[in-house]
Automatic annotation (TrEMBL):
Cofactor annotation: Fe cation
PANTHER family recorded: HOMOGENTISATE 1,2-DIOXYGENASE
EC number: 1.13.11.5
Superkingdom as given in the UniProt entry: Eukaryota
Protein's recorded name: homogentisate 1,2-dioxygenase
Family as reported in the entry's similarity comment: Belongs to the homogentisate dioxygenase family.
Lineage: Eukaryota, Fungi, Dikarya, Ascomycota, Pezizomycotina
Pathway per the UniProt entry: Amino-acid degradation; L-phenylalanine degradation; acetoacetate and fumarate from L-phenylalanine: step 4/6
Signal peptide: none
Homogentisate 1,2-dioxygenase C-terminal domain span: 289-444
Length: 473
């Protein structure tokens, strides 16, 4: 079926549509009609605007949302630094941590669960490029948590949009704009600045995050594919308005700002938005609804055909971040090596595995909750076991990826690895290259009766082989 049969049933209602203009109210009549900022909003609410782009951004790119809440978002104390030495998700130019740019192929064993921390302290930057200070680049995180966030606490990142890919456990996320239940095989995007609280109804959680420092995610253009397929806009789900009424309890508001953690106090809940309308909101998507496209004749197409979301640069066709999946699908190409070919890519490729076995890495080293990084121009491809099998298998229609879901964060940037990723996590596989590609054997043999074509100039100045002469000779 074209959707995931989740073990944990859905518990919330949603609005459907990607980049759709939504409006929702939790109390009838709370949303003003026509006007955005009436002199007196309904029911004594305060009007406020949440801007995800510049006011003057082109209409097609403009993302703003009007919120109608019990108290303004600005009603809090000053932010004070908190845990600066231990909470550091922007190591560039920090004296106590660095980012390492290295060309080696890297692979990590499954990352550990951690039942001692909540969502905020579960974030481990494993790799990245650029800086949230200049709103350029990306950060890749592993998260592992075992505790709910404190009852009266909320968190937001001023640094970028969080694309969350759960691998284990369920996230119950209360945001200012409503609630989301996010399970493995779903993804969730929480835009820059949106405040939220994460609880864990099924126990410990683990997964991956791509934080986008620049721009926002969009659906890829479909070109000659037409108007549908890949991730269809109708399958994205945004929350409906939900609010708490609490103006007497102390709350802690946590902010990730330039990779550092800050905290402020306020005497009311941040989750008091009674109604909202706009284009800037969190959303989720079931990866089981992805409509895959592939070759039905010959050859293996580029993996870009599996792009769910993209964050384009100002250069057409080049993304600061693509989110790509490898879902269950049929392979029918004739006379074709069906796994991904060996390649060197100007784009960097960070991969993770949600569940199952990735069809291009069958040797057992790439496991659920693990990861790999093939940086700019680092050669990679199927391991020796997969190559041998795929080179001799009977090419009949084949369903691959059944019960599996792998994904990739792809970027045009050269991605550096943090000290946590290289050493502190203690998950790097030292033998990745030697296990995957060193065992490959040469099979080249010149058939009998064939000779090498010489390319040297002969003593008399002529061509060694007339077939090598340019067409104008």
């Amino acid at each position: 079926m074209p959707f995931t049969n989740f073990a944990v049933p859905e518990k919330y209602r949603y609005q459907n549509g990607f980049n759709s203009y939504h409006e929702t109210e939790a109390v009838e009549g709370a949303l003003p009609i026509a006007t955005n900022s009436p002199q007196t909003p309904p029911y004594g609410l305060y009007a406020g605007k949440l801007s995800g782009t510049a006011f003057t951004a082109p209409r097609a790119e403009n993302q703003q949302t009007w919120l109608y809440r019990i108290l303004p978002a600005s009603a809090h104390s000053n932010f004070e630094p908190r845990e600066h030495q231990t909470f550091n998700t922007n190591p560039e130019n920090k004296p106590w941590e660095k980012i390492y740019q290295i060309p080696n192929q890297l692979r990590w064993d499954p990352f550990d669960l951690d039942e001692t921390v909540d969502w905020v302290h579960a974030l481990h930057l494993i790799a990245g490029a650029g800086s949230p200070v200049t709103k350029s680049g990306v950060g890749y995180y592993i998260y592992a948590a075992g505790k709910d966030m404190d009852q009266n606490s909320a968190f937001y990142s001023a640094d970028g949009d969080f694309l969350i890919v759960p691998q284990h456990g369920v996230l119950d996320i209360q945001t200012e704009l409503g609630k989301l239940l996010v399970r493995p095989n779903e993804i969730c995007v929480i835009p820059r600045g949106v405040r939220y609280r994460v609880t864990l109804p099924q126990g410990p959680v683990r997964g991956y995050i791509c934080e986008l420092y620049q721009g926002h995610f969009a659906l890829p253009e479909l070109g000659p594919i037409g108007s549908n397929c890949l991730a269809n806009a109708r399958d994205f789900q945004a929350p409906v308005a939900y609010f708490d009424e609490d103006t007497s309890t102390e709350w802690t508001l946590l902010s990730k700002f330039a990779g550092q953690l800050f905290a402020a106090k306020q005497n009311h809940t941040p989750f008091d938005v009674v109604a909202w309308h706009g284009l800037y909101y969190p959303y989720k998507y079931d990866l089981g609804r992805y409509n895959a496209i592939g070759s039905i004749s010959y050859d293996h197409p580029d993996p870009s055909i599996y792009t769910v979301l993209t964050a384009p640069t100002d250069h057409a066709g080049t993304a600061v971040a693509d989110f790509v999946i490898f879902p269950p699908r049929w392979l029918v190409a004739e006379e074709t090596f069906r796994p991904p070919w060996y390649h060197r890519n100007t784009m960097s490729e960070f991969m993770g595995l949600i569940h199952g076995q990735y069809d291009a890495k069958t040797g057992g080293g790439f496991q659920p909750a693990g990861a790999s990084l093939h940086n700019v121009m680092s050669a990679h491809g199927p391991d020796a076991t997969t190559h041998e099998k795929a080179s001799s298998v009977e090419l009949k229609p084949q369903k691959v990826g059944e019960g599996s879901m792998a994904f990739m964060f792809e970027s045009c940037l050269m991605v550096g690895v943090t000290e946590w990723g290289l050493s502190k996590c203690a998950k790097i596989q030292d033998g990745y290259n030697s296990e995957s590609w060193v065992p490959l054997k040469p099979h080249f043999k010149i058939p009998a009766g064939k000779k090498r074509i010489a390319n040297e100039v002969t003593a008399d100045g002529g061509q060694a082989d007339a077939r090598q002469q340019p067409h104008y000779a």
